[in-house]
Amino acid sequence: QVPTPTGDEYDLMDQLASDLPSVIDDESKQQVEDYIRSCNNGQGPMVACFSTAEYLSLFLRKHKDAAELYHNTCFRPMKDNSPNGVEVDGTKAYAPSCFNLAQMRMTGKGRTTFSRSEGYQLFDRACRAGHGGACFMQAKMLMSYPGSLGEGVPYDVPKASELLKYVCEEKDDSVSCFTLATMLLRGDKVSSEADNVSPEEARGVKELQKRVNEPSREKKSIDERTSLKRDPLFAEQLLQRGCQRGHAPSCYNLAVMYTQGDEGVEKDEAKANDYQEKTEELVKRFGGFGMGGM
Fold first, then answer.
1. What are phi and psi of 87, to 5 degrees?
2. In whole angstroms, how large is the CA radius of gyration of the chain?
3. Where is this region: Disordered (predicted)?
């Protein structure tokens, strides 16, 4: 079971923030006053109320008040005339508000309500309203170890893969492309957390190597998690998408794929060298292996 937040984690951060001077220029101050006025205590346009909630949480540290406005703009009646609302389950939702409220529910930030099951439902609502980040978070929750996030959070790897595919292809999110590609290359012969698995190990035609200072990568019989069927060809396409968006790990995995070859993917020294150079270029540009991409 994942540890439960106490609600105190943000207290020190809020205390430090309250002791610092709030630096906001006159133009920005006027903008803040304008959207607070436009929000009209939750009666105004969704965007104005969302911006007000952001100000309350980030600048004034009034997280409970912010959560109320996020909820207000995540659940509006169908008669609401805000141009940014999207119909979800018979009501209108402003996706960024649902997403921010979901994050607060997952942590209990600022002593607001803590509920992982509600957080999951809010990520789902934000996702269906078109928020790519919410779809990714929902997918990660669906992939968590069965029961680790509580009874209200389902375990559904196939659905998670559909969400990752959607965010990769429709939202051009390189991390989603990479995450799904990794799942498709790992297969069902090794642990769901296993890294650096060769094609032969993943296919089960070669024993898993035991590496120093690394936990066993073998999938245990008591492991309740399901795995996706290996699909190197689709994984190749996903990694190419990620690499094109400047995601160094995707480029690196392509270099490895073309060096070793895989089912349906021929070895190609020229491509391997090209992607290795691309990886090194991105690492140099962003100062780290995990940077870059969208």
1. -70, 125
2. 22
3. 189-225
Question: Taken in order 265, 270, 274, 279, is the CA torsion positive or negative?
Answer: positive
Cα distance between residue 172 and residue 276, in whole Å:
22
Look at residue 214 in the predicted model and tell me its pLDDT. Answer: 74
Name the pLDDT band for 294 (thresholds 50, 70, 90): very low
* Half-sphere exposure (Cβ direction) of 218: Cα atoms closer than 13 Å: 10
What's the whole-number mean pLDDT along residues 192-210?
79
CA distance 183 to 235: 9
The CATH architecture of the domain made up of 30-155 is Alpha Horseshoe (1.25)
d(C-alpha 289, C-alpha 282), whole Å: 8
pLDDT, the chain, mean: 89
Among the listed residues 37, 167, 150, 41, the one whose alpha carbon sits nearest the alpha carbon of residue 99: 167
pLDDT digits (tens, 9 = 90+) for 36-49: 999 999 999 999 99
- Asked if 225 and 145 count as a contact pair (C-beta separation under 8 A), the reply is yes
pTM: 0.87
129 residue type, one letter: A
Instruction: Enter the tokens of residue 252.
Output: 């690196």
Cα–Cα distance, 113 to 126 (Å, whole number): 18
Per residue in 212-258, pLDDT (tens digit) is 777 777 777 777 788 899 999 999 999 999 999 999 999 999 999 99
| Pairwise CA distance, residues 248 & 178, whole Å | 10
Q: Dihedrals φ, ψ of 22, to 5°?
A: -85, 110
Q: Residue 86's CB: how many other CB atoms inside 10 A? A: 17
How long is the chain? 294
Type and span of the H or E element at 100: helix 95-107
Side chain identity at 244, as an amino acid letter? Answer: Q
Give domain limits for the chain: 30-155, 176-204+226-294
* pLDDT confidence of residue 219: 78
